[in-house]
Write a structure and sequence with these properties.
Strand content: 5-15%
Number of strands: 16
Low-confidence stretches: 1-36
Number of helices: 16
Strand order of the largest sheet: 6-5-7-1-8-9-2-10
CATH superfamily of the largest domain: Alkaline Phosphatase, subunit A
Oligomer: single chain
Length: about 500
């Protein structure tokens, strides 16, 4: 992969002596170290919502700032959409029993929940690599599931400091060659069919470390909500009866499997409210399935600490819970999966921190990028960014500022991201602006009514893109069938054209 010279970012931070992260907040000219042409004053200005939300927010010391660092337990659930959880407003009880230790609902009561956490993309490897490195996909190199990250992860840094590090993941796109295994003493992959073994096998690795009181980093990544939607039988009919599922048209059976999901995207008129709700019911049951895996693992870890005479898990560790991305669930064009989407159902993810001085039951409104979670929790660094970009490679873009979402398709590509099913288009407007407070699923394009804000956000997006110093990720061999089953393009694109975001003034509403 090569970046065309005309798109090679200019590091204006070196010109002005500013830290790279500041570029998420600035609107500057790329041609020189001067300000962009004056736009009409915005009320509020770009980034002001985030700045105000951060005022008065007090964070506890980072794990490494404490005299005796606590262990670090990272638990993530693949493809978990935030608003399908009751502590993010869902009506269904998808998070288990709030009175039962280590259920998701219980963890939310015991820890601090972040209201807005934004992923950099809707794909697993790029998003998780951003979580572990603190960098955007352009910077760490894993811009999709076929290129490996080239940057050092937090796991590798902790391992070098003498920590024991163990991981188990259920997504096959996270093969060791992807780069996230570096820094882990043990790294296991359990396919979705063996996901029930992920926690027990990981506990085999942690037992000795807990007993020896060695500093410990452990990561468990569960996958149940990822399509196909096949929850454990005990949960299958929690939200939709067997009769309701059987009533779906025969040519859409079996409900929740890839053939059905692809058919609905190819023929969105078939995604009737009844069909959509049936599929969403199975997805929600998959969240309950993941909750079972997660709480069993954390209970097992808690038991190991108690057997070692050290007290419970929360006496010894900080738990960070999050997701890599969400799921479309037919919000747009009958598309249920995630790889094509930059809308908020996919880009907003749940995140909470439990233990280590984080306040039980607290809710933080200030927006947070997935890239900043570990530096905040582990190193105690207060996040500084106020604008939140996301992208599909270098062709489709989104930017979030307070309640506003900008969607940008600079080339006016009429097909959309080339992800399965590739014969069905996912149509992004060239420019769209949505207000999530009034329009949570981003259906009503307000760009023509909010021209000044739209142009300002376009300029900020373009300047962010041009400020990033890219790393070329190493190409990996992937199994085409596996990628297709996971809803991703089967192989790396041989010729990828990079499209620069437009200047705001070049957009003619």
């Amino acid at each position: 992969m090569k970046w065309p010279a005309m798109h090679m970012p200019l590091r204006l931070d070196r010109c002005l002596g500013l830290a790279p992260m500041v570029w998420a907040m600035l609107v500057v000219s790329v041609a020189s170290c001067t300000k962009s042409p004056q736009e009409p004053a915005l009320d509020p200005p770009l980034g002001e919502d985030a700045r105000l939300a951060w005022q008065g927010v007090t964070l506890p010391p980072g794990v490494l700032e404490q005299g005796q660092p606590l262990d670090l337990v990272i638990v993530s659930i693949d493809t978990l959409r935030a608003d399908r959880l009751p502590f993010y407003g869902a009506e269904r009880d998808t998070a288990g029993n709030v009175a039962e230790p280590f259920h998701l609902a219980w963890l939310a009561e015991q820890g601090t929940v972040w209201e807005q956490t934004w992923a950099p993309t809707g794909k697993t490897l790029p998003s998780l690599a951003s979580f572990w490195t603190g960098l955007s996909p352009y910077e760490h190199g894993a811009i999709d599931n076929h290129t490996a990250t080239q940057e050092t992860t937090l796991a590798a840094r902790l391992q070098a400091q003498g920590w024991a590090t163990h991981a188990a993941v259920a997504n096959r796109s996270l093969q060791p060659a992807a780069g996230l295994a570096a820094g882990f003493d043990s790294y296991q992959i359990r396919f979705k069919q063996e996901e029930v073994l992920l926690g027990p096998k990981l506990l085999e690795q942690t037992a000795v470390e807990v007993a020896a009181s060695k500093p410990l980093l452990v990561w468990a990544h569960f996958m149940a909500p990822h399509q196909t939607y096949e929850p454990l039988e005990v949960h299958r009919h929690t939200f939709a009866s067997a009769e309701e599922l059987s009533a779906i048209a025969e040519d859409l059976q079996p409900v929740g499997l890839n053939p059905m999901l692809k058919t609905l995207h190819r023929q969105p008129q078939l995604a009737t409210p009844t069909v959509v709700e049936a599929v969403r019911a199975l997805y929600d049951a998959e969240i309950l399935t993941a909750n079972d895996y997660l709480k069993d693992f954390l209970r097992g870890l808690d038991a190991q600490y108690r057997q070692a005479g050290r007290g419970g898990l929360l006496d010894n560790a900080v738990i960070v819970f999050f997701s890599d991305h969400g799921e479309e669930l037919a919000d747009h064009e009958g598309y249920f999966m995630h790889a094509k989407s930059l809308y908020s159902g996919v880009i907003q993810v749940p995140m909470m921190v439990v233990g280590g001085g984080w306040t039980a039951g607290a809710r933080i409104q200030a927006p947070l990028a997935l890239e900043d979670v570990l530096s905040m929790v582990v190193e105690g660094k207060r996040p500084q960014r106020t604008l939140f970009p996301s992208s599909w490679k270098s062709r489709f873009y989104a930017l979030r500022d307070g309640p506003w979402t900008l969607i940008h398709n600079p080339s006016q590509d009429s097909q959309g991201p080339k992800e399965p099913p590739q014969d069905a288009a996912f149509l992004y407007p060239q420019v769209a602006l949505y207000h999530r407070g009034q329009d949570p699923t981003e259906q009503n394009n307000l760009a023509a009514q909010e021209v000044a804000r739209t142009r300002a956000m376009m300029n900020a997006l373009r300047d962010w893109y041009l400020s990033v110093e890219p790393t070329v990720g190493a190409a990996m061999e992937v199994d085409p069938e596996t990628m297709s089953q996971l809803g991703y393009v089967e192989g790396a694109t041989s010729e990828e054209r990079y499209v620069l975001p437009l200047r705001g003034e070049d957009w003619k509403p």
